[in-house]
Design goal:
There is one protein chain. The chain has about 450 residues and is mainly beta. It has a single domain, classed as Beta Barrel (Porin), CATH 2.40.160. The chain is about 5% helix and about 55% strand. It contains 3 helices and 20 strands. The chain has helices at about 5-15, 35, 245-255; strands at about 65-85, 95-100, 105-115, 120-125, 130-135, 150-165, 170-185, 200-220, 225-230, 235-245, 270-275, 280-285, 290-300, 310, 320-325, 330-340, 345-355, 375-385, 390-405, 425-440. A 14-stranded antiparallel β-barrel has the order 1-3-4-6-7-8-9-12-13-16-17-18-19-20. The chain starts with 5 loop residues before the first helix and ends with a strand.
């Protein structure tokens, strides 16, 4: 890892733990506010409840008067299990399983907005929408294909919105993303002189990179609104080190190590490219009565940009070293929610959403057991004073049971793992609980 991490650590410490587990497709996080969580994040690019709206569409800032601050966090409790059978090189089958491979996490956020004049509003968002952490444990006999994976990101996102006409608002923002990542695999059985649990591959690194977002909102009339937002991809080059038998073997072939050092824990400086994909959202808001509103969202994520992970280790080779083939595909999220204004102070919310998987059954892996998800959400907001509003929300996510098989058919680089514990075939199951709270203050 880089030694100079003062900025990253200062911000991460201020906002709390950012070791997160993905609950939208891939390692994407939808959990950007408790307000949105209560409606399953339906209508996010068209609804301006508070300063948190800018993270999903900067144009929504133009609906916010004066100066506003919003801050909160979402506690995530994932329950992801993997069960299956491991077949060793001699054909012996052994049942194996691992529970709770994804870790609990708190996802914090902070948002600020300020109305500059009748047409311009500025804001800044401190949040994240990409992160994950899985650990398959030491007893699971499938770790030869991957025993852990993690992505941690944090985003500083200044935004500006312009009220072009009474109906059209336009917004733009700059994204400064700080990221860390790691992925590893260990032998799941003793093979010759190689002990069980020996690191086969491990790579970690960190980087900072820039991106941008653009958004627009159009009021069809005083009861109907549509919003659109696009967030660019962000290309991280995670600079750090690699270790494990895979890299020691290359070093021995190049004469940098002797055969007796095969099991050594040598570190090799290098980097790994990681693309945070582009996203787009189309939302609508429909005020049916003075009390009832319905809102919808269609989200797209360009997960096809996440096709493989390769390590660039100059001391070992001028060619990239394959870490993991991913072969992901673009995914879609569909959400519909309702808001009911109970009285002047109390707002009730609910929503349902469906997330399609970013991987096919053929390309699902043990380290990221990605599958379809269904969200059920409820939430409420209470206006404590004309300036202060408190929000709370609860969501239950059903993850579809899905098959996992490694080595995968047609993926040559997977097959090397079989020599250190055999083949795995099984199923991943799971669900996720989320609880969010948020406070918003208007000056």
């Amino acid at each position: 890892m880089k030694n100079n991490k003062i900025v990253y650590l200062a911000v991460a410490t201020a906002l709390g733990s950012l070791s997160t587990t993905a609950h939208s497709a891939g390692f994407q996080l939808a959990e950007t506010s408790a307000t949105g969580l209560g409606r399953a994040f339906a209508g996010e690019a068209a609804m301006a409840d508070n300063a948190s709206a800018q993270f999903r569409n900067p144009a929504l800032l133009s609906y916010l008067a004066d100066t506003q601050v919003s801050a909160g966090g979402i506690y995530v409790n994932p329950n992801v299990d993997i069960d299956g059978t491991n077949t060793n090189t001699s054909g012996k089958k052994t049942a194996t399983s691992t529970d709770d491979v994804a870790h609990d996490a708190v996802i914090p956020n902070f948002y600020f907005s300020h109305q500059l004049d009748d047409r311009l509003t500025a804001g800044i968002a401190l949040a994240t929408n990409f992160g994950m952490e899985t650990d398959l444990g030491n007893d699971f006999t499938g770790t030869q294909f991957g025993n852990e994976a993690a992505v941690t990101t944090f985003e500083i996102n200044p935004n500006l919105a312009w009220k072009a006409t009474d109906q059209l608002r336009i917004g733009a923002g700059i994204r400064y993303v700080l990221g860390e990542g790691s992925i590893g695999a260990k032998s799941s059985a003793k093979v010759g002189s190689i002990p069980k649990g020996t690191t086969l591959k491990y790579m970690e690194g960190d980087d900072r990179a820039w991106g941008w977002q653009l958004g627009a909102v159009y009021d069809i009339n005083d009861k109907h609104r549509v919003g659109f937002n696009y967030r660019s991809e962000v290309n991280l080059t995670l600079d750090g080190h690699a270790e494990g038998l895979t890299y020691n073997k290359i070093a021995i072939q190049k004469g940098q190590l002797t055969p007796k050092d095969y099991l050594s824990g040598n570190h090799y400086s290098g980097s790994m490219d990681l693309t945070l994909p582009a996203t787009a959202e189309l939302s609508s808001l429909h005020q049916l009565t003075e009390q009832w509103a319905v809102h919808t969202s269609l989200n797209w994520t360009e997960w096809s940009s996440f096709d493989k992970l390769e390590a660039d280790i100059p001391s070992l080779s001028s060619d990239p070293q394959m870490v993991k083939v991913e072969n992901w595909e673009d995914n879609y999220r569909f959400a519909i929610g309702t808001t009911y204004q109970w009285d002047q102070q109390l707002t009730l919310r609910s929503g349902i959403a469906y997330d399609t998987s970013a991987v096919s059954d053929q390309n699902r892996t043990l380290t990221i057991p990605e599958t379809d998800r269904t969200w059920l959400s409820v939430g409420a907001g209470y206006e404590m004073t004309p300036q202060l509003t408190l929000d709370a929300a609860f969501t239950y996510v059903f993850a579809k049971d899905a098959p996992v098989k490694e080595p995968r058919d047609g993926i040559t680089s997977d097959k090397g793992g079989s020599d250190f514990g055999g083949d795995f075939e099984g199923e991943t199951t799971g669900n996720v609980w989320l609880v969010g709270v948020q406070a918003s203050y208007r000056f």
